[in-house]
User: Fold this.
Amino acid sequence: MNVKKIYMDADALLEGHFKLSSGNHSQFYLQSAKVLEDPKTAKILADALAQEIKSSGLEIDTVCAPALGGLIAGFALAQALDCRFIFAERVDGVMSIRRGFEVSKDEKVLICEDIITTGGSAMEAASVVESLGGEIVAIAALANRGFCKCKNSNIKTHANCKLPQNIPFFALADFTFEMYKPDSCPLCKDGSKAIKPGSRGN
Ligand code: ZN
Assistant:
């Protein structure tokens, strides 16, 4: 399966000159929500991810996604794995599990994101699940931004990666691309102006 092509076809992988939320510039921008606007595509991606997880032999009771980014991917993955789905959300900046969701002791939980960058939100969700007695057995994402090494990937783990080394991380594809400080951005040097993705109302 050509995951990058699926993202390209869905306009979820944009090429141009972008100003990222970190302030850095990049030639590419991953708008992961866009690939999930067609539920059929979401199912294809989630089924492929579920297949990888199943073939690893892991037992999963529950998928937990950090809101908002992980919701659709997490739900689709839970459906594909035929397990329960819950989500964690920020309340005053603190990741919490609300809405009557319960986690039982030793429940095997997989944390799912749409995209893993450094894995910060995923690990915040993992901490909440663990504080309720759950056991984190895996992390999964449709796309990996290339800071953390996922299973079946050749990339090296970056120092910024927050995912623990002892928990398997599944992702369908690595989307590694260069980021530049604005004052050393080759695209700026070529005279174009970085735009903020989403600045046109999307
Ligand atoms: Zn630039």
